[in-house]
Specification:
single chain, mainly alpha
Length: 136
């Protein structure tokens, strides 16, 4: 079997692979040689970087943090759909324009709903407003 395949020669891939291995080994070796060496009691404690821990690592977070994270992921994902539409705007034409307007309208309606029920408020007034029924 030769190093020439149907797609082209294989030697650039092998050269690249060898270059990456040498580069990574060089970076790890350099950091080992030039790195600091200190051995305090708190150095080997996980996730503390040599600082003595104070308190427990088991903290309870409010559900508001998770709600905001979910809202961010949802709206961030929808921005990807809008970007994909913007890339293909010439191909989709006016029908695609109408569809993206409906899509953005649904996003705005969801944001208004979340705002109205107080899901975006972190203070006590937002929680009280969320507990009351929405007046029409």
């Amino acid at each position: 079997m030769s190093l020439d395949t149907v797609q082209g020669p294989l030697w650039p891939f092998i050269l690249y692979f060898v270059f990456v291995i040498v580069l990574v080994a060089g970076m790890i070796g350099t950091s080992y040689v030039l790195g600091q060496r200190h051995r305090q009691r708190a150095t080997n404690i996980p996730y503390e970087s040599g600082i003595r821990p104070t308190g427990s690592a088991r903290l309870r977070y409010s559900a508001d943090f998770y709600l905001v994270a979910m809202f961010f992921v949802i709206f961030d994902l929808e921005s990807i759909f809008i970007f994909a539409w913007a890339v293909a705007v010439k191909e989709v034409g006016w029908a695609g324009y109408a569809e993206i307007l409906v899509f953005i309208g649904v996003l705005v309606a969801a944001l208004v709903y979340l705002w109205r029920v107080g899901a975006l408020d972190w203070g006590t007034t937002g929680r009280l407003k969320a507990m009351k029924p929405v007046e029409r």
